[in-house]
Design a protein that fits this description.
Helices cover about 30% and strands about 15% of the residues. By secondary structure, it is an alpha/beta fold. The protein has one domain (about 35-140): RbsD-like domain (RbsD-like fold, 3-Layer(aba) Sandwich). Helix 3 packs parallel to helix 4 (about 90-105).
Amino acid sequence: MLKNIDPLLNADVLRALRAMGHGDYLVICDTNFPADSVARHTGIGELLRIDSVPAARAVEAILSVMPLDTFITDAAQRMEVVDSPNEIPVVQQEVQGVINVAEDRDWPLVPVERYAFYERAKNAYAVIATGERRFYGCFILTKGVIAPSE
């Protein structure tokens, strides 16, 4: 255990988050997402897991150490519901709330069509599978920067 580090952030996840650079994508996905096959295309090349919790809790842990990119308008993306792109399932509402708290403001959670989401996910640095069983618990976060302390 480490002080002030969320215990959900295992060594593999912490290594990936630390290694990511500004602008790198991170996929957080539900149990139905083709996580392993997509992860093979990523910078890490293997699937990471925080699979004991729902998506919102995993995102909360991740955003406790990772800033979102403030230079772009789509630093937080969600998978659109098929045939209902304006629908926002409860799981996505929960993650939206976590993002807003972590970033201390209303933050846009941008919808991405399902197959476009899969293609973007292949360009991620890493994929983290959660224990989320509800449909559409899939997100892409873009890493930002931490400003100098001066």
